Structures are given as structure tokens and as C-alpha cells.
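**User:**
Make up any protein.

**Assistant:**
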Amino acid sequence: MNILTDTEAWGLLLGALTPWATSLIQQPDWSKGVRTLIGTVVSATVGIVTVLARGDIAHVQTALTTVALAVVASKTFYDGLWQYAGAGALERATAPDRRSGW
């Protein structure tokens, strides 16, 4: 199996990187529920775009697996690594009050 041709592997990899992209729009003062919802929607979207880009939308099992892997990888990597490796600092740095110089 070649990882570059495996849609599920791409979903897992991109899902693991999604928290960094999500932290650009997340705000530190948002509730946990809102932050979780946004993270889930963004990572599911990444999974769907991955399936579409790989041309596997007709394969239902591959599509569902890829989306699920992207969501689970995003949550797992955020909880286990990214929140301690600077995602929170990136959220604070991109907060509107920080950007406007307040």
C-alpha cells in the first residue's frame, strides 16, 4: 500500500494538521461547546474535501471512513499535542482584540 494513493491515510494526516488551521479562527473567549462544534465542522469538511480531491466520493465506505478519521485525528492530535505545542498561543495571537492593538 502506498500512502500517497490511500484516501484514508490522507484524511488521517490532514485531520492531524487541522487543529493548526482551526486555531487561526478559534477565539480564546468562545465557549467549549462552540469551539468543539467549529473544530468538528472544520475537520469533517477537511475529510469531505479530501474524499472529493481523491475522487472517492462514489465509494461510500472510503468516504465515511476518511471523514471519520479526519474528525478523530483532529480531536486526538489537538488534545494530545497541539494544545500544548502552541495552538492556544496561535488562537490568542489571532484574537480580534490582539490584532487591533487593544
Q: What stands out?
A: Residues 7-92 form one domain.
